[in-house]
Amino acid sequence: MTPAVPAGPRRIGLDFDNTIIRYDEVFRQVAVGRGLVPADLPPTKTAVRDFLRRAGREPAWTELQGVVYGPGIGAAEPFPGVLDFFRACRRDGMAVCIISHKTRVPYAGEPHDLHAAAMGWLEAQGFFRPDGIGLARADVWFEETKAGKLARIAERGCTHFLDDLPELLTDPAFPAIGGRCLFDPGGGCTLALPFPKVASWAEFGRLVGVAL
Ligand SMILES: [Mg+2]
User: Fold this and answer.
1) Which residues have C-beta within 8 Å of that of residue 167, sequence separation ≥ 6?
2) Which residues of the chain have pLDDT under 50?
3) Rounded to the nearest whole angstrom, what is the distance from the C-alpha of residue 150 to the centroid of ligand 1?
4) What's the pLDDT tens digit per position in 124-160?
5) CA spacing 20 to 30 A to 196: which of 15, 42, 161, 174?
6) Residue 15 CA to ligand 1 centre (angstroms)
7) Which of the listed CATH numbers 2.60.40.1220, 3.30.379.10, 3.40.50.1000, 3.40.50.2000 matches domain 11-22+79-208?
């Protein structure tokens, strides 16, 4: 892969859901616990979603997401290499921020505060510890809409942005920055995209010039 490191200062923008935080096992655990899916289902979000959709249980899928992204979030884990990436950015003086599109409350079910849940997860994982990653809370943005997320990426002056959704990165309203990158940990994206895909945080580090 060709490193895509433009000259000048870099400011790395990062998506949150399914890029920094991995919910796969939580989706299966909560769904099995509620009797929605069989226990031998593969531990991935996609497997749970597809099972419920095939069963005609879209409302159950929507409600499940509210539980997993709210009270269930504590059981989610950082993707391998995420914490090392943030530490390396701090070591190298690289500016990073988290910019997420996340509604304040779920579309269905109990009105859990999803922004507070996500901030609580970051706190519990040590993102804000001054003697660790040292991320500032002011560098974490939860936007209520996709348009708000795209505007925030431009407003923060991100030179790079990593996201797991091709449709976000290819949105006509996406800011004109050089460093768009798809996070595709399963390697399942077969789309031909005009920017790189990475399968791991170590690979993303190499792309932006941060050694983990
Ligand atoms: Mg995402």
Assistant:
1) none
2) 1-5
3) 13
4) 999 999 999 999 999 999 999 999 999 999 999 999 9
5) 42
6) 6
7) 3.40.50.1000
